[in-house]
Structures are given as structure tokens and as C-alpha cells.
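Could you please consider the sequence and fold following this short note?
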Amino acid sequence: MYQKRTGFRLLGSKKPHPKMDAQHADLQDTGEFVRHNYGEGVYILNSTFALSAVAELGRLPPGHPGLYEKTEALALVLMQKVVDREFRPVHAKVRTSMADFYPEEDVAYRGKLAPPTVPLCLVEIPRAGTRTTLAAEKVLRLVIDYSTVWLDHHPSQRLVDGKGQAVATARGQQKVSGRPLDNTKMIVFDPMFARGESAVGAVDYYWEQRKEFGFPIEENIIFVGFIGTPESIRTIRKRFPKAKVYFVRLDRGRSSSRVLKSVPGTYPKEEKGLTNDKKSRSYIYPGGGGMGEKLSNCFNAEVCVHVQHDKRAR
């Protein structure tokens, strides 16, 4: 039996809602990615399945089992896109169990596969990024040898001024493997890219330590998230213009109606996806409503506001 979902309402399909972003208006658009004007290397998924799962993440309350199920499903979707586009395939032979019945025939699959031994550094940014990065690791190890995949940990937090406005990102104590990075692919998987400063700051750490660890080719740095903003794209492109970006959804909810009716990236200086008022500062709109708190089952709106305002920039 169909169970009515709180916060869910069908809209008419003949005419888009005035607050709907143009990138979601055409129900007949079956392209793999959303059209945009951000340039090469930015991929915004045009997936009904993934968009539905992200919308559910935003709707569900903290600690709901569906949050973790959908996080794993979205990690599978995103990692599939990343492997298909960013990992150069190889031709290989893989024996199948049918060889037991036909031992004289050398039964095997011969064809295209993901490269099995790619040095791959997954960068985790607690706490929102903890579950997503672990889910990504689980998915990637389905096709890549476990010995070449590792996790580095980069705690960070936003610093705000006296008005509650985010002004900087403070790094915590990194825990890194120390493996050489020159020929490595690096995936930074944070579910919510508000300004993108935490993710970019994590990669900056490796740049600062490049004499010790080396540094990946910039095209091999891949930022992955459930929801991003125009602000985060600008942050990433300014610091690492050749890096790749994969988002399920791009939120521009604080933009003017002219911007929302346009192809993403048409009016870059006017695009806004972050709040800036007394209710919340620098949060994605419509966003997901505090994904780190939701996935950790510790969301309390009143407490979060007080804690956030206590973390002031010194």
C-alpha cells in the first residue's frame, strides 16, 4: 500500500513551478549530465534515480535508516560515473566458473574492465564525509584491488565571525598514509559542497607537503558530492582549474528568477546557492538540512546554531 510521505507533493508537469530551477524543468531530457556553462570537467548528473535519492536524504529526519541506505546507493551511482569517465579501462581475461565444465576450452571473459591496480587516495572530511567516503571505498573495492586503495582523514570546521558568517576553514589533525602521490588518483567525497573550502583545503595540505609525498596530476583530483553550489564550483575552479567535479545536484536556490530560468553557469556572478540571513549562514538552499548532523543522528537545530556561533574566527 502506498504510504504518504511527509513533505512530498506532486507538481503539475505541464508548466514548471516558478521556483523550479531550469535544469530540472524538462522531463523529456534523458542526457547523462545537465547542460551548463562552467566549462570542461564539471559533471552534474541528470539522473532521476540519483535526484530522487538526494531529495529523500533532505527530507528524512536524523538517524532514519533510509539515510544510510540512500548514501550507499548514491555512492554506487557516483563512483560508477567516476570510474567510467576517469579511469582508463584495460583489456583483460577473467576466468569464469563455466571453465569447470569445459576445462579444455579455456572459458573466460575477454574484454574491457576497470584497471585493477590504480593507486587511489580517498580523502575523508569528517563528519558528513565519513559515511560517504566509507561507502565509496566499499564500492570501489568491488572492481579495484584493495591493496591500492586507502583512506586519508582531514578533520576541518568552518569558522564564523560575530554575525555568524563563515569566513574561513580551520584544519584539524590530519591522519594520512604517507604513500607517494605522484601517480595517484585522489577522490574527495563530501556529501555537501557549500563553499567547497574544506575539500579544497584538504587537497591544499598535500600541495604544501608535495616535497615529501609528491602531488597528483591536477586532472586526477576528483571532487565528488551529493549537492553542490555555484559558490563551491568557483572555489574549486579558482584553486584547481583542471580538477574534476561530480555532483548529483546543483542548488542555486538563492538566485534571482532570471538565473533560475537560465542554463547553469550563464550568469556566474549572480548565481547563489547559500543562505545569508539570521536563520542560517552559508548553508545550501534548498540543500539537505545539515547532512553531517543527520548522518551522525545528532541534529538539534537550536544547539547547532549556538555551537556554530561559538566557533568564531580568532
